[in-house]
Write a sequence for this structure.
């Protein structure tokens, strides 16, 4: 029953994401910032510091109506999301890639978030597209801010970076559920994944490489899905 319910969630998610992307295309702005030189990822076993980061998206009218991301200073955390008309939230662990973590850290630093009292909400209101929250807690100070549109490029880009993290994590989960229980749904989900890749709406496509390598040789899913996985894998590794 659990997998059956998650399969239904997967189908609904595809419809919602398409609707949300279509609406946001009309108001799309600000290219993602160019990352600075990457610092090496800490060795395994390294302890995170006391800082905790949070992002939240809410739009009750959407099928995926509520998403929360929490992670530590090493980029390890979880994404929790709720579907419309469902009482049970789903949580999935994730780890930011070094590229994504660097971009996100740069944006937090540019905002000087804990030292700032800036209201990031612009005069233009796009509440129908959803509301974002950013939260930072360094163990001594904590601040939360909310907006649905911002003229501050760093605040807006940070919200979108986290949106890409959430969308990637949720869609990967949906693909895994479909692969296990409803393999005939994998071609549609891989189409969605490829569309997100083309629009640069994935947090880090290289994190998909292990899954795509498995899918391209998985005889339990349709041949068209295996070919899709192989095609997308070649694009990512190019």
């Amino acid at each position: 029953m659990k997998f059956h319910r998650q399969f239904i969630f997967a189908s609904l998610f595809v419809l919602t994401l398409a609707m949300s992307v279509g609406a946001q295309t009309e108001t799309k702005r600000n290219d993602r910032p160019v990352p600075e030189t990457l610092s090496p990822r800490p060795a395994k076993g390294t302890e995170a510091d006391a800082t905790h980061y949070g992002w939240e998206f809410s739009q009750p009218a959407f099928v995926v109506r509520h998403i929360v991301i929490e992670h530590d200073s090493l980029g390890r955390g979880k994404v929790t999301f709720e579907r419309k008309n469902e009482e049970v939230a789903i949580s999935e662990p994730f780890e930011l890639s070094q590229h994504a973590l660097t971009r996100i850290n740069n944006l937090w630093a540019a905002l000087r978030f804990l030292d700032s009292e800036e209201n990031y909400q612009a005069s233009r209101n796009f509440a129908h597209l959803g509301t974002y929250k950013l939260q930072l807690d360094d163990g001594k100070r904590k601040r939360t801010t909310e907006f649905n549109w911002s003229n501050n490029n760093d605040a807006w880009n940070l919200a979108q970076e986290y949106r890409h993290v959430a969308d990637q994590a949720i869609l990967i989960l949906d693909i895994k559920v479909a692969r296990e229980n409803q393999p005939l749904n994998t071609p549609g989900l891989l189409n969605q994944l490829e569309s997100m890749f083309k629009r640069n709406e994935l947090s880090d496509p290289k994190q998909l490489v292990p899954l795509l390598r498995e899918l391209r040789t998985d005889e339990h899913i349709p041949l068209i899905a295996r070919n899709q996985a192989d095609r997308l894998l070649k694009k990512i590794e190019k």
In short: The chain has one domain: 2-31+47-237. The radius of gyration is 18 Å.
